[in-house]
Amino acid sequence: MNKKLFYKRLTAMILGGLLTVSAGSVSAANTVQLNLNDAVQMALENNRSIKTALANVDVAKWNLSKYRRQTGVTLSLSSAANHANDTLAVQHGYDNTYFTNSASASIPLYNFSLRSGIESAGYALNAADVTLENTKQSIRYQATADYYNILNYKNLIKVQEDAVRAYQEHLDNVNAQYRVGTVAKSDVLSSQVNLANAQQALTTAQNNYDIAIATLNNVIGLPTDTALEIDEELKHPAYNLNLNDCTNYALNNRADGAAAYYAVKQAEAGINTAKAGWYPTVTASANKAIDGKSAFRADHSNTWVFGATATWNIFDNGVTTANVNNAEASLVKAQEALKTQDETIQLDVRTALLNLQAAEKNISTTETAVTQAEEDLKIAHVRYSAGVGTNLDVMDATEKMTLARTNYNTALYKYNVSKAALDKAMGIPVDIDVAKYKASQMEGNRLKKVRDDAKVTANPVLELTPEAKKASKEETKAMRQAEREVRNAADANKQAAAEKKTVTEKKTAVVSEPTKNTEQPASTAAVASEMAK
């Protein structure tokens, strides 16, 4: 199975929740077993910075296509229905209502601005290609460094666990001696304090490990709560590199250096674009027009014309000169940026190589220190058990052993990270060899040939895939649907609120209406008769 397809399917399974591990809870985190190559490949497949760089390549490609399309033939059609007064109708067979139709075609014969625009857009596409490669190299380094960071904290957890175990065993020994009255209470208390400090350091190391896992998950495109099972250990591979060779390779192969070079070429093309104001433009065109009483009829007129048109701005009050001076200043700016980038490349290589050499020396030194610290701790334990050593001697020896082991693992971690940083500083390729890319492009080859000459993998992803474009359209469609649903819900809420308000107003009106007196007033005779009773 294709490895890239495997990583895509693996990520899809993770995101779909198919690789679920039960750990006695209702919802357990996904667990994935990874090695360094897996992590790097998944990062290259899923990282969003790479997807953004791919989109930038497509933007540059279609921008170049836009300029190239302008050098070809353009066709246009027009049709109109007209109603005119008698004076104008004379020109159209005395028909007040008439129809006109025309077709025209044109092609630029000479357009200096268009030619330089094509040149500039081509360099922009070259810059997008090498910037994509630079992004991939950066993500490869980031995934590698984050992977090594996990291994580092994994080792530090083991160091702190050993420290906690050592402090606990010593505390047990101190308590035993305290119960028989051979040591003071202060030894127990100081041992308890050191144990608590070691436990706190262990908690910190475990937390840093969890953060390192989440960080790598974020880089390789997995949910941050995914549990990673990593069985590798930090190693100490030998290297045979010198500064001059590394620097020369980097100056020829760094992708960001190539991007700065193509920025200079774009600036050079920009000068030509500015100079276009001093040159004429020549366009060939042909036109056919018909005029009739009915649509698409030529009973009034049927004409055609073809020719060439030249336009030349003889005097523009110095605008073109100002544009040229502006473009020349931009070229100087791009040239200085290229020189700065070359100096940065040299500094990056030197820094990475020096860090690598220092880490290698520290590995040897700290390895010896670990052996010595372990021996010193054994002696301190024996002396304390024999009653000739102090509790402080044991605590100090334990602390030194923990520090020596920590320093050894840190040196091993820095060595591996520095080696990855040196690869990044030198521009070790991911998908394309930048030096071959530049050489092929300078030979005047078309883009496809340039990419084929430079690729170092069988099927490099250098543009947005059809799947990515389809996913983008589906995402846009889903967002619009969600927006419509929100608007519909808001309208429904407003309508419900209006109906509720209407009902409330009606009820209020009924309650506030005065009660009518239905009793008829008694007559005077009736009142007198009632009083006589």
Automatic annotation (TrEMBL):
UniProt-listed InterPro entries: OMP_efflux, TolC-like
GO cellular component, one term: cell outer membrane
Stretches assigned to coiled coil: 324-376
Region ranges (Disordered): 469-533
Pfam families for this protein: OEP
Keywords: Cell outer membrane, Coiled coil, Membrane, Signal, Transmembrane, Transmembrane beta strand, Transport
UniProt biased composition (Polar residues): 514-523
Family, similarity comment: Belongs to the outer membrane factor (OMF) (TC 1.B.17) family.
Protein name: Outer membrane protein TolC
Organism of derivation: Selenomonas ruminantium
